[in-house]
Amino acid sequence: MAAHGLRTGEVAERAGVNVETLRYYERRGLLAEPARSIGGHRAYPPETVTLLAVIKAAQRLGFTLDEVAELLDTGRRRHPTADLRARARAKLAEVDEKITDLRAIRGSLEEILAAECDSLTHCTCPACPMPFADLADPAASPPG
Amino acid sequence: MAAHGLRTGEVAERAGVNVETLRYYERRGLLAEPARSIGGHRAYPPETVTLLAVIKAAQRLGFTLDEVAELLDTGRRRHPTADLRARARAKLAEVDEKITDLRAIRGSLEEILAAECDSLTHCTCPACPMPFADLADPAASPPG
DNA sequence: TTGCATTCCGTACCTGGGTACGGGTTTACC
DNA sequence: GGTAAACCCGTACCCAGGTACGGAATGCAA
């Protein structure tokens, strides 16, 4: 009996993360405490692997673990309460901002790829414009 | 004489970063070593402020300082060599991936905001789908 | 049931990205 | 020319996010 549930090693391998990371995420509240065998070994539901991929993806985008936790929490329960809706809206704004910034970077990179500066042979680019200047917002909002 | 150039305090304040951070970035190679006064005090060109904004923006997107340095280096010299072009292209791909992921998150958030689950009063959402599942890529490429 | 791989837990350690400290110069203003 | 504010440098510390360690207990297979 009780063959259901993946063990830590399996989950870790499938998700491509360290075993310790699972325990760490559990402590951090990103992973719910899984069921346990009689002897106390964890038995994870298979979706855990997907969840870990989600977490890692969100992290790559610059979300902190706390933010990821919040994001997941918001997403978990559909039909959010007013409070949750507000958080979702806030996250949405953040995400939009990130997308905007990324597009600016993207534009600069494409420009660079396209640029020939009139001629590769003659141009020493004495006064090349600031790279990514279109991205930099002088009125940067302070964190907090 | 030598009133040209901003001092560390000015740059730091305008860019909204700590003075120590300037020295740190200099050590890391993100900021070029600025000119110095006779007495050894740094005199920064005004574009430094913009550059710092760029760095901070890129960081918010999940780029490491090393990556930012690389990005800047790529962007600095227009009409890149073949090698530089390759790096720019690689970055471009990364950026596109990030944008794709962010759009997935964005979509989920909007869904959440739009969702009423038929009725807020009756739906207990017994089997709500995985949040952000569209973002998780099971074939996640291992780092390195 | 013996035995080896896994897992358990707590704690210590590591890297990245800064920030703070402290004692000594340099500037800038009166 | 005196003095406070700003700056210098090296070094030590801090937080986030993991990762490693090590000794005991469990799981599974022959």
TrEMBL record, chains A, B:
Protein's name according to its UniProt entry: MerR family transcriptional regulator
Pfam families in the record: MerR_1
Source organism of this protein record: Asanoa iriomotensis
Keyword Oxidoreductase set for record: no
Residues annotated as domain HTH merR-type: 5-74
Lineage: Bacteria, Bacillati, Actinomycetota, Actinomycetes, Micromonosporales
Keywords: DNA-binding, Repressor, Transcription, Transcription regulation
Domain of life of the source: Bacteria
